[in-house]
Amino acid sequence: MNIIILGPPGAGKGTQALMIKDSFNFVQFSTGDILREAVDAKTSIGLKVKDIIAKGDLVADELILEIISQKIADNKSEKGIIFDGFPRTILQADELLKVLSDYKMKLDLVIELAVDDNILLGRIETRAAENSENVRDDDNKSALKKRLSVYHKQTRPLIDYYKKHSDFVSVDGMMEINEVSENIISILNKRLN
Ligand code: ADP
User: Which pTM was predicted?
Assistant: First the structure.
């Protein structure tokens, strides 16, 4: 079962993606984590994307697609894949469907985590304060503003896209983390049974 978790920065995509991974034994790809690891390891990709990420801009589609295509190829026999932070543009979404179909796989479900903008800034400020020794380069006010505007311009259109192209559900991401998880688990169980 292949799933996308879609939502604005700070919506809790990473938390819920990990929860699904552990509960259902799926694999999880977070393009944000993959890129941050590359930045920390100072690989050629890392050096290329460091400043782009810190500003809150999107990394080039081609680069992301190269990374994700390889991940799909390496994990095509897994029970399920969770995509977290990908796709973020219509082009990435179109390409994902093509790559999946190349491997005779399909996209089974898109879960939107819906959270109001005014809550997101507070969440990210809290995350930065709680992790003061290890703050993400893009967890500051100006980068977050950019990430939110990029989300609205480039990624939010994917909601209408997936309403047309896929099984799509929207989950209220403003409840307690556990309640969000329970909702997602029950949505997945319904589809798996
Ligand atoms: P968040 O969703 O909280 O903003 P992520 O960890 O998903 O954080 O992404 C952090 C940054 O990594 C993004 O702002 C962007 O610069 C880059 N990035 C991650 N995924 C993609 C993607 N699919 N396409 C382009 N850039 C990406």
Answer: 0.94
Q: Is 144 in the pocket of ligand 1 (CB under 6 A)?
A: no
Atom number of ligand 1 nearest to Cα 68: 23
143 lines ligand 1 (CB under 6 A): no
Query: Which amino acid residue places its CA nearest to atom 2 of ligand 1?
Result: 9
Bridge pairing between strands 81-84 and 109-114: unpaired
Select the CATH number that applies to the domain covering 2-192 from these four: 3.40.50.300, 3.30.70.360, 1.10.730.10, 3.30.1330.40. 3.40.50.300
31 C-alpha vs ligand 1 centroid, how far in Å? 6
Residue type, 33: D
Burial class (CB in 10 A: 0-12, 13-18, 19+), 133: exposed
Domain assignments of the chain as residue spans, ordered by start:
2-192
pLDDT tens series, the chain, 193 aa: 999 999 999 899 999 999 999 999 999 999 999 999 999 999 999 999 999 999 999 999 999 999 999 999 999 999 999 999 999 999 999 999 999 999 999 999 999 999 998 898 888 888 888 887 888 888 888 888 899 999 999 999 999 999 998 999 999 999 999 999 999 999 999 999 8
Ligand 1 atom index nearest CA of 36 = 12
**For residue 97, how far is the Cα from the chain centroid?**
16
Q: Atom of ligand 1 at shortest distance to CA of 86?
A: 23
Token pair 């309640």 in the structure block, residue: 179
- Radius of gyration, CA atoms only, the chain: 16
Q: Is the CB of 119 under 6 A from ligand 1?
A: no
